[in-house]
Specification:
This protein is an alpha/beta fold. It has twelve helices and six strands. Strands 3-2-1-4-6-5 form a six-stranded mixed sheet, with helices on both faces.
Length: 314
């Protein structure tokens, strides 16, 4: 799956992160607690090497608490990673993050010590709201649309902590189709990048399988249909999302389901588990391996053709 949205400022931000990384003491990566794997940027993972990383699972009030606990355990299997679930509904733990950062950095801490942390995350993951809560003042522009922050900012928070805030960045091609749907469902990808009805169909099928009780309760159903399309038709009829002739308007129904997920009206839901992520990661690695082999084969074919052409001239 290729997402046709990679603004120039994101490309620039990727280069800037690569350049500044040697100068920072640790990385703070904000991921969406509802999709910790799909919202973790592989670009960051490739850059950081063994530099300490604080993974903050934002919007945890919207995520499945049991699955969030699984994710925290899973992420902290890496000894260089510390993971915490956060929500702006409970700002007090966020305000104590400066102390957590100090504990993670292996250098002598005194009054003169300054720790520089690079804070990063994909668009619309709540990074700017987190920074404002941490700072106790409006220092980063926040909004509900992706790509609000478009330039790097240096923020002195006091208590010996300096944040380097970067624009939310996505990678140019999302190789895992399921991750693409999850990112679109969460609002990380602009509405123009994927069709709402496709995203809603993915959501309907996943939600009926993973959270049947919540779907029955929310939509007052005794039983659930076996497939996504009949489920969307049922929702559309129930909520009056009808067009001409009384037929279900799938665009309106899709928007309704997506908005109810994003707002938490469907309940506390997580779109992926560590077990799901591990399986998908293996598939993505295989896709990358095949593409690398195909690229190398084409390169060798071009070389052979060029050599044959040169020999023919001789």
């Amino acid at each position: 799956m290729s997402i046709n949205w990679f603004p120039g400022h994101m490309n620039k931000a990727t280069r800037e992160i690569r350049e500044i990384l040697p100068k920072v003491d640790l990385i703070i990566e904000v991921v969406d607690a509802r999709l910790p794997y799909s919202s973790a940027n592989p670009v960051i993972e490739n850059f950081r090497a063994d530099k300490p990383c604080l993974k903050l699972l934002s919007k945890s009030d919207l995520a499945d608490p049991a699955t969030t606990r699984q994710w925290l355990d899973h992420l902290q299997q890496d000894p260089t990673v510390r993971a915490m679930a956060i929500t702006t509904q409970q700002p007090e733990p966020i305000r104590k993050l400066a102390e957590t950062c100090k504990q993670m950095v292996h250098k002598k801490i005194d009054r003169a010590t300054t720790i520089t942390a690079l804070i990063t995350g994909i668009p619309n993951v709540g990074k700017s709201t987190l920074i404002n809560t941490l700072a106790g003042r409006q220092v980063a522009k926040a909004g509900n649309e992706p790509a609000v922050t478009q330039r790097q900012q240096r923020i002195e928070l006091g208590e010996g902590l300096i944040l380097i805030d970067t624009p939310g960045i996505l990678w140019a091609k999302i190789e895992n189709p399921a991750s693409g749907y999850r990112l679109a469902l969460s609002g990380a990808i602009k509405a123009t990048a994927m069709q709402d009805d496709d995203v809603a169909l993915y959501a309907a099928e996943y939600l009926m399988d993973a959270y049947p009780a919540l779907m029955k309760e929310r939509f007052q159903l005794d039983t659930l249909p076996g497939e996504g399309v009949p489920f969307l038709e049922t929702i559309g009829k129930q909520r009056g999302c009808l067009g001409r002739g009384g037929h279900v308007d799938f665009d309106r129904t899709a928007t309704l389901l997506i908005n109810e997920f994003r707002s938490g009206k469907l309940g506390q839901i997580t779109l992926e588990t560590p077990a799901m992520a591990e399986k998908e990661h293996v598939k993505v690695a295989e896709i990358r391996r095949q593409k690398a082999e195909e690229k190398e084969a084409k390169k060798q074919a071009r070389k052979a053709a060029y050599k044959a052409k040169a020999n023919k001239k001789d």
